[in-house]
Amino acid sequence: MTTTVSPELLPTGQSLDVARVEGERAYALDRAHVFHSWSAQEQITPMTILASEGSYVWDGAGNRMLDFSSQLVNTNIGHQHPKVVAAIQDQAAKLCTIAPQYVNDARSEAARLIAERTPGDLNKVFFTNGGADANEHAVRMARLHTGRYKVLSRYRSYHGGTDTAINLTGDPRRWPNDYGNSGVVHFHGPFLYRSQFHSENEQQETERALEHLDQLIRLEGPDSIAAIVLESVPGTAGIMVPPPGYMAGVREICDRYGIVFIADEVMSGFGRTGKWFAIDHFGVVPDLITFAKGVNSGYVPLGGVAISEKIAATFANRPYPGGLTYSGHPLATAAAVATINVMEDEGIVENAARIGSEILGPGLRGLTDRHPSIGEVRGLGVFWAIELVADRATKEPLAPYGTSSPAMNEVIAACKAGGLLPFANFNRIHAVPPCTVTEAEAREGLAILDTVLDIADAHRNS
């Protein structure tokens, strides 16, 4: 059963009864006027959230739920961190907004803090409003820098919902938006559990995936390819951590053919994998890094592109043909400054690494031993996927690729009834709590999953 708050108050101090009434009105207005993303509008019953704090949210009935989704894997410092809330309030009192052609101290400081944490010489930052437009601009920079047009990205990926970004995406959300004229070519990345290359181990998977990518480039024409875009660790598509040597191999291929290497860190960056950027696990320096989400935990919309010296030099005396009204918005960048400082001061990146290695990783592997519906668990830091299958031997997923299933719907409903807000996609549950999650909270989530997975076990093929 869900955990219910005090019958009187929410963490904000608001009366629960008053909040419920406000929530009911908000729900009615939502259904009358709000058009939801990725949804058939008449087939959804969106959850109302009355309040949030730390690793928890409170639903429209006042039930407390452990947020094992971090919303869209973006509340890396948890909900309502007081220092970041205060920074936004202070900035609003000082300078709410200013056009991007003017210098403002919040944007300058945010750029400095980000550049200090990016690998190699990625010392310039172009700010956007989120991850999708960060990827749009990274591709634009790569095309202008190289004078080429084609861009390669992998199947089983997600890069955003805008025009170029959705075409980069390698999951079914691309299909209704893909007319084949975007210049994007998809390839298979490494994923040993469902290997496209019939590999038996990680070394084979690395070698064969790199051979496949190299062959594709040669068949497409190396001189026609501007960029390769890769999530450092693919997120929504399944948290498939690249095997040893793969990312270094991609870097070598890009260098050989003069292709720009874009690392998409929108979901995996800013502590999520237990390092500032997931690419740091692989000792590789890309040419461009795209980021958003965790840079300020989504408190105010913000994204950006971190740019290497070589690509920045292309636009030293040549105007970059792109911009955004809200690029480097003071409220958003003030939130980023506060977030990065909080993460540093409170050891939040280190906490994510420790929770992953000591609690989530071992705990999820323990669930695998007890639940035959788990085909595989995989991840880093507080970034884990639980692959649910109807048959371990055949690896038949509990829901088909590209959709859900009655079995998965039961599992998700049981998570919520048990007090856990999950991130689910196709046949997977992702364990992606805030980077601030405590050991006790992580164990709480694992205990709920342990109970819920009995339902998945019951749906296995007999």
Explain the layout of strands and helices:
Elements (H helix, E strand, L loop, with lengths): L2 E2 L11 H18 L15 E5 L2 E4 L3 E5 L2 H4 L8 H13 L10 H13 L6 E5 L2 H16 L3 E5 L8 H6 L15 E4 L14 H19 L4 E7 L14 H12 L2 E5 L23 E4 L11 E5 L1 H6 L15 H16 L2 H23 L3 E7 L2 E9 L4 E2 L8 H12 L2 E2 L1 E3 L2 E4 L7 H20 L4
Helix pairs in contact: 3-10, 4-10, 7-8, 11-13, 12-13
Describe what you observe in this structure.
By secondary structure, this protein is of the alpha/beta class. About 40% of the residues lie in helices and about 15% in strands. The protein has a seven-stranded mixed sheet with strand order 5-11-10-9-8-6-7, sandwiched between helices. Strands 1, 2, 3, 4 and 15 form a five-stranded mixed sheet that branches. Strand 12 (about 375-380) and strand 13 form a beta hairpin. It is globular.
Quick structural summary:
The protein is α/β, with parallel strands linked by helices and 462 residues long. It has 13 helices and 17 strands.
